Every structure is written in C-alpha cells, then in structure tokens.
Amino acid sequence: EAGTKAIAESKNLVSLRRLVLALNAIGDEGAVHLANSHQLSGLHFLNVAGNKLSPRGEDALQKSTALVNIQILEIV
Question: What is the CATH number of the domain that holds 66?
Fold first, then answer.
C-alpha cells in the first residue's frame, strides 16, 4: 500500500485526469489513500479493477468527497 500512498500524496499529479491502477494488488488501505487524496481531485477516470478490494475499499472510492471530478470509476 506504500505505492498507493505515494501516488495519493504526490503534489505532481494535481493535473492528472486519468489513472489506471488495474491488477496491482491494491487493497482496502490503498483504496482509502486514493479516496482521501485531494491531490487526485482532478481525476475524471480511475480504474482499480482486478485488485484486492473488499466492499470497504469499494465504498471508500464510491463515496469519496475528495475525488469530486470522477466521471468513470472502474472497480470490477
């Protein structure tokens, strides 16, 4: 989950619009890092399909108040 945390905290990704993290063994902790990241608030598309997310991680992403511009969220 350290990699996901690093992405979520990176100030260099503020203008990022599309992020594909499919099939990266991301778990719930990583999903929560992404969901709480104001650095990723510009994302329009996020793909985390094929990871190790339980309903807790999925919920965190779907109900995120930080990822305000998400138009497409691919979880499955």
Answer: 3.80.10.10
Q: Quote the CA–CA distance of 44 and 17 in Å, as a whole number.
A: 5
pLDDT per residue over 44-66, tens digit each? 999 999 999 999 999 999 999 99
Rounded Cα distance, 18 and 70, in Å: 9
- Rg over CA atoms, the chain: 11
Q: Which domain holds residue 10?
A: 2-74
Domain count, the chain: 1
Contact, 40 vs 13, CB < 8 A? yes
- 38 neighbors 66 (Cβ within 8 angstroms): yes
